[in-house]
């Protein structure tokens, strides 16, 4: 096996919303398990093939808790999770917490929300149609749709949604400016707000997820106050910012190379569910091409003829796995009719995304409404002029000007 190239410093350069850094294709072919230096100054194992990424995602010997604990190796940057967050826990703590909250995210529970998600989407698109001209789709739809849905899930009063949006966006949009101070301030404001909201819901429960989580119990075990607060802002980061970015980037992917893909969807809206799965696979949401969160080997692990030793940091390149030609033929092509599509964009194993049903539903309803009302939607500026926020978590469009009609 050849040594990693000098350019192989994680995160690898050249990643965009269109796909992971080109170097990943060579790594999958020649060095699917390779130790690379990281921006934080430590070495980490980078895993790039689909089967390895999928298997290790479910391997309990790779610990998220060890990666968040004191003395854990720093991969670099300011992106952070706290030890109490569900994405930072190993079993049995993770299993206990997930069992208590999983009922709020079942397919049946999410389907009960469909009519309301449709209503919110229709209202936003009504407003878009009434305005006409050039519209910023990020501000018009991609941000307010998931924000409103998450706000209603948690029972956030409508009059609080705007300040809620400001704090949530600051928390989720992590970068290295001022050492991540803006993100930390957003986290502090959100935590303070959610503490007050929990107190209100405990005294006056309503029909919302937060009230349901407050009441949730398993063998007389309830979510503690810190767990409720932490889960609240975890839901905001995952359910608001991630969905907003996925929707905006997906619309861009459909429009960027002409309107053929968009018109193809408009011709038959029954194609949208399959197209959404392909957009989830093809559009590279993560700026680092991984889920963003390293793991630490709790014991020695053999992968692809290589030994990952106890204490080593491991990075699972989900974006690379989703471009593995052995699983996805013609993997770099956006194929909206792709039938076999076992992508792992929602992760795999115990940490797979709880909100996957909700995310899919929001994407499907939003795209269905857009292609139905605006079959001739197009970019209002060249793709090269679109503004991006270069943060540490997601490829984030700050504006997506679109237009339609004559």
TrEMBL record:
SUPFAM superfamilies the record matches: Cytochrome P450
Q: Kindly name one Pfam family recorded for this protein.
A: p450
Q: What are the protein's UniProt keywords?
A: Heme, Iron, Metal-binding, Monooxygenase, Oxidoreductase
InterPro entries annotated for this entry?
Cyt_P450, Cyt_P450_B, Cyt_P450_CS, Cyt_P450_sf
> What GO molecular function annotation could you give as one example from this UniProt entry?
monooxygenase activity
**Membrane-spanning intervals of the chain:** none
- Identify its protein family: Belongs to the cytochrome P450 family.
PANTHER family reported for this sequence: CYTOCHROME P450 YJIB-RELATED (PTHR46696:SF1), P450, PUTATIVE (EUROFUNG)-RELATED (PTHR46696)
Recorded protein name is Cytochrome P450
């Amino acid at each position: 096996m050849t040594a990693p190239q000098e350019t192989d410093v994680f995160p690898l350069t050249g990643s965009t919303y269109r796909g992971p850094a080109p170097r990943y294709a060579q790594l999958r072919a020649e060095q699917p398990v390779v130790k690379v230096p990281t921006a934080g100054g430590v070495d980490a194992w980078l895993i790039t093939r689909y089967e390895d990424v999928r298997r290790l995602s479910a391997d309990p010997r790779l610990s998220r808790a060890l990666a968040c604990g004191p003395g854990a190796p720093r991969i670099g940057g300011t992106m952070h999770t706290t030890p109490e967050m569900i994405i930072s826990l190993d079993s049995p703590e993770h299993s206990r917490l997930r069992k208590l909250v999983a009922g709020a995210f079942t397919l049946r529970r999410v389907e009960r929300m469909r009519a309301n998600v449709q209503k919110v989407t229709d209202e936003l698109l009504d407003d878009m149609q009434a305005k006409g001209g050039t519209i910023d789709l990020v501000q018009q739809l991609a941000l307010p749709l998931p924000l409103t849905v998450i706000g209603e899930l948690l029972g956030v009063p409508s009059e609080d949604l705007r300040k809620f949006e400001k704090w949530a966006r600051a928390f989720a949009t992590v970068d290295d400016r001022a050492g991540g101070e803006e993100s930390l301030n957003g986290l502090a404001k959100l935590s303070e707000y959610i503490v007050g909201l929990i107190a209100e819901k405990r005294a006056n429960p309503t029909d919302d997820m937060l009230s349901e989580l407050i009441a949730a119990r398993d063998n007389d075990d309830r979510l503690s106050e810190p767990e409720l607060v932490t889960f609240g802002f975890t839901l905001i980061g995952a359910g608001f910012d991630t969905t907003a970015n996925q929707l905006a980037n997906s619309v861009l992917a459909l429009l960027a190379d002409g309107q053929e893909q968009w018109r193809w969807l408009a011709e038959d809206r029954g194609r949208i569910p399959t197209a959404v799965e392909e957009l989830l696979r093809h559009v590279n949401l993560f700026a680092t091409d991984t889920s963003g969160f390293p793991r630490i080997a709790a014991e020695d692990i053999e992968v692809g003829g290589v030994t990952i030793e106890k204490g080593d940091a491991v990075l699972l390149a989900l974006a690379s796995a989703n471009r593995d030609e052995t699983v996805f033929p013609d993997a770099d092509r956006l194929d909206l009719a792709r039938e076999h599509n076992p992508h792992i964009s929602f992760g795999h194993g115990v940490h797979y995304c709880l909100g996957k049903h909700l995310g899919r539903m929001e994407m499907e309803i939003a795209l269905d409404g857009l292609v139905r009302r605006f079959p001739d939607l197009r970019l209002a500026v060249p793709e090269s002029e679109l503004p991006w926020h270069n943060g540490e978590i997601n490829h984030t469009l700050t504006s997506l000007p679109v237009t339609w009609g004559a």
